[in-house]
Amino acid sequence: MHVARTSGLTVYEHALSAAMHDVVAAFRDNDDAERAGRMAREVMFWLTTAYGRDAVQDLAELLARRIAEAQVTLLPADDPARPEGTPRG
């Protein structure tokens, strides 16, 4: 199998994107907070080992934003907690 050379930043970007997708999906699929928490800890351990604490901080900020967005789009359209103009999930 041929593996293309990529910069460390590209590898980090792909890992971060995959990690966010998996953890957010765990929250959205049956609201599985236990699985999402376990996955987040595993991903953060891997990122800390591979890239350092800054990677963990970046991931935490992006995850918090994505999870908040996912939760808002799951709210009913008439829910007062749902911001105006938010797309329906």
From TrEMBL:
It comes from the Bacteria. This is Uncharacterized protein.
